[in-house]
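Tutorial handout. Part one gives the primary structure; part two gives the three-dimensional structure as tokens.
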Amino acid sequence: MTEAVSPAKAWLMAARPQTLPAGAAPVIVGTGLAIHDDFFAPVSAAFALVGALLLQIGTNFANDYYDAVRGADTEDREGFTRVTAGGIIAPQSVKRAMYATFGLAILLGTYLVYLGGVPILVIGLASVAAGITYTGGPLPYGYRGLGDVFVFVFFGLVAVAGTYYVQAVTYAAEPFPLWLPEGTVPLAAVVAALPVAGLSTAILVVNNIRDRETDAAAGKRTLAVMLGYRLSRIEWTALVGMAYAVPVVFWAAGYGLSVLLPLLTAPLAVSLGGTVWTHTDGEALNPALERTGQLLFAHSLAFAVGLAAPALV
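Part two.
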């Protein structure tokens, strides 16, 4: 198997491009709200997007490496091929790629730190640390049922509000503020982050339902291992349901009819729910995992367009 995979394809497998919507989605939504509020700053948005994607890829490298060295990725695992456990790329090479990717994210983030000051510095360093310690370090929280919380907070709340902040702060304050200038992180930015947070976490829930048995055998106590199948499926349903409740809240708050555009993606969510509630095998859940990522991206793009539309017409 190793000989059949080219180096380029191997690194593409390690980067897991199918997960990149989880990195792009919060930037898209945060930018949509920034456009609505006349705070759009294209350069800041572009840096936020590249930084978010690098953090996603770095986290993927970290998970690939640390899950392999901890023995969580076994031959019984039904998920997508992991390059470290599969012997496709040497473990130390994956580890170096992880640190290089996070290092590049930090380097590019210096511009956002210049604009956003101490809040962005803290968020950036915390995001890198969280990406590594998800499965790495002496106490990996992904092995203790906290992975869902990490994704919800960092790939949802922090990423959307942070994207909005780095654009709003260019209008509201001088470079490198020591704290959040007034009006740069409104309540709307936090509430708008909830659909991204919910759907991003739903991706992880599908992954953990699929891997529940092998994770339990390897001592990896994900939330799905702790809760069992039924409660994990209820969690998935609640997270996805929240993603459709929030646009209705924005519409009720006067953001215009266009903010309901994400509801057009509801049939895909219902179809995915049927799969998640009735299957545990990789044959069914691997496609569902990718389709949940597609749902996240489609919902986020529709939400961003709905938020921005009143300012563009």
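Part three, for discussion. The radius of gyration is 19 Å. DSSP finds twelve helices and no strands in the chain.
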